[in-house]
Amino acid sequence: MRSVGRRHALGLGLAVTAGVGLAGCGAEERVSKGSASPSPSGAAQGHGHEGEGGRHGAQLKQAPARPIGDGSTAFTGKQPMQPDSPVPLEPGETPPQFVIFSWDGAGEVGNGLFPRFLKLAEDHDAKMTFFLSGLYLLPESKKRLYKPPNNAVGASDIGYLTDGHIKETLKYVRRAWLEGHEIGTHFNGHFCTGTGSVAHWTPAQWQSEIDQAAGFVKEWRTNTGWTDLPSLPFDYDKELVGGRTPCLLGRNNLLPVARERGWRYDSSSPGGSQRWPEKRLGVWDLPLQQIPFPGHRFEVLSMDYNVLANQSKNSTRAPSYNYPGWRTQATQSYLAGFRRAYETNRAPFFIGNHFEEWNGGIYMDAVEEALKGMAGKKDVRLVSFRQFVDWLDVQDPAVLARLRGLQVGEQPAGGWQSFLGKAPKREINREMETRR
């Protein structure tokens, strides 16, 4: 598809150690002409696939929707297709290998990537987290409704979507939730550089940004004037329990706000290691991680753009003769990070992505092949961030303390049966102090 639109900085994170540093990197926003076909009218009552097919259609039937506000969202009961309630690990039990695939922005711009990865998830019994940018549900004609901190009214470093692409985004966000995936937030205007960068925002400004991001989701019907589309089938005030900041910046001032709002996790920390997570200010800290980068001594952040930056020096349209080798390298990088955790400390593995066709789409191919290489293995659970913290929150604090004590690539002494036996009282006390 031909790309037309403005240059912008995406939620790309920071390459660390010897890799290329990315405080905010340019890429093209795809904003194409045309409009999507209208979805069926009425509230969400099992419209999850909306003509896209899939084997779970019968399971997506929901109770009659109870509209919220202007009807942009609606309460439809418990989210479908969720795992059984988590239980604590038994003494000596091997921990699951959790893998979380997440998507920044989560807008459908005509390249078919959103439905592609929903289908992949369906085929491999995977759940994912989609960090929706609130502006992707706001028409450009209404951009002056957005008042970004330290920036001009209506400004944004990502492009506003066409009306057709907003409708497509609504359709796939609706389908994603009905298929058991999580809808988080990537906030709004994605400011990564200059005085208006999110790196400089105060807690009060983060509060405003979140209010607006949530508001654009909860009031898309008012802002668009569209009355022939079904509601999003969830209460976003309850659904929204975590996010990822643009370019992984500004989290120190975000965290107090996240705690106040009752968020359960944050995935904005750059350069985390492959170890078991802990809480900061009462919020689970789930960072993108440094993983092996085949052919190099340094490691790369577990996000598609950071792999790209270390291959093509930020170019999203490098010479195509590089693509086969880079695709293989990206795939093997993800799989190496997975194996290092799976075969040793079983630390959860987090991978960040964008619905983009950078360098011929090789990073989309790489994440697909990597997921296929992980799915179906013993103890592997492909889950959303929300599902993962559900599991964390029911575990024995002493067990989590022991897991956190394992270093990157460290196997449990004596095997899992020995390592996760009954915890001494001193470990329980130390963990309880940490949680305070």
Element order: H for helix, E for strand: EEEEEHEHEHHHHEEEEEHHEHEHHHH
Q: Would you tell me the overall average pLDDT?
A: 87
Residue share in β-strands: 5-15%
Total discrete domains: 1
Rg, nearest Å: 21 Å
Could you estimate the helical fraction of the residues in percent?
Answer: 25-40%
Low-pLDDT stretches are 1-18, 20-58, 424-433
- Helix-strand makeup class: alpha/beta
Ends: how far apart?
52 Å
CATH topology: TIM Barrel
Give the name of the CATH superfamily: Glycoside hydrolase/deacetylase
- So, CATH architecture? Alpha-Beta Barrel
Number of strands: 14
Largest sheet: 5 strands, parallel
Rough outline: globular
Describe this structure in words.
With 436 residues, this protein is α/β, with parallel strands linked by helices. The protein has one domain: Glycoside hydrolase/deacetylase (TIM Barrel). It is 32% helix and 12% strand. The chain contains 13 helices and 14 strands. Strands 5, 6, 7, 13 and 14 form a 5-stranded parallel beta sheet that branches. Strands 8-10-9 form a 3-stranded mixed beta sheet, sandwiched between helices. Strands 1-2 form a two-stranded antiparallel sheet. A hairpin with a 6-residue loop joins strand 11 and strand 12 (299-301). It is globular and about 60 Å long.
